[in-house]
Amino acid sequence: MTPKLAIAGQGKTEAEKRQEWRIAGFSRGCTCCQAPFLAGQVFFSYLRIDAGEKLGFERLDVCTGCWPARALELRQETEAGPIFWRTRRPRDKGASSVVDLVAMRQLFEQLLEDEREEIEALRYVIGLMLARKKAIRVIRAGAGARGDLYFKDPREGRDEQRVRLPVPRLDEETIEALKSQLGEILGS
Q1: How many domains does the chain have?
Q2: How far is CA 35 from CA 11, 12, 65, 88, 102, in A?
Q3: Does residue 180 fall inside a structural domain?
Q4: Run of H or E residues at 72
């Protein structure tokens, strides 16, 4: 079974929307060569837009040996390029509750360059998590009900630039559920 993150759709109840935000943890092995991931082993995770019956994201994990070839294939498959981050399998059960800020920041920096509408919620929630952990510096929050965030661009060489992160149309419970699930996959 492949882990997926589905985008909450219009015309659904709040409970139905919350059910769509399901992200499973990392795979036990490489999706290319099926080699198992050992405790502490570094690997790459990437998100692929799944345009099947429900529009969503599919998470796939690839070992460092298979990654160069897979990354090249992904760059050829998508115009915007792959959304990926480097992570590692936790050494023990207790480590899975800790969020990997380096991996989350790598993912966020790539999402900033991706303008596709379907990743807007993902980008916003990761931005909130990084701001909460003080991994990015929020300059100000937008006034009024909108709540857009403005922060210094975290990408290298862009320290003086500001970035606006618009709020997607999500309810608070959906955001909390997504944050929880993201913490699980990025910390795993």
Answers
A1: 2
A2: 42, 40, 10, 14, 24
A3: no
A4: helix 67-77
Query: Residue 47: which domain range?
Result: 41-89
Rounded CA separation 75/77 (Å):
6
The rounded distance, in Å, linking the Cα atoms of 59 and 83 is 10
Q: Is residue 50 part of a domain?
A: yes
Q: Are residues 130 and 157 in the same domain?
A: yes
Q: What is the dihedral of CA 97, 41, 185, 132, to 10 degrees?
A: 60
114 Cβ partners below 8 Å, 6+ apart?
A: 80, 81, 83, 123
pLDDT at 69: 92
Cβ-count burial of 11 within 10 angstroms (0-12 exposed, 13-18 middle, 19+ buried)? exposed
Q: Are 105 and 135 in contact (CB under 8 A)?
A: yes
Q: Are 131 and 155 in a shared domain? A: yes
The whole-model pTM stands at 0.48
* 46 and 81 Cβ atoms separated by less than 8 Å: no
Residues 106 and 146 in one domain: yes
| Average pLDDT, integer, range 119-133 | 81
Looking up tokens 């993912």 gives 107
What span, in angstroms and rounded, lies between the C-alpha atoms of 63 and 155?
Answer: 25
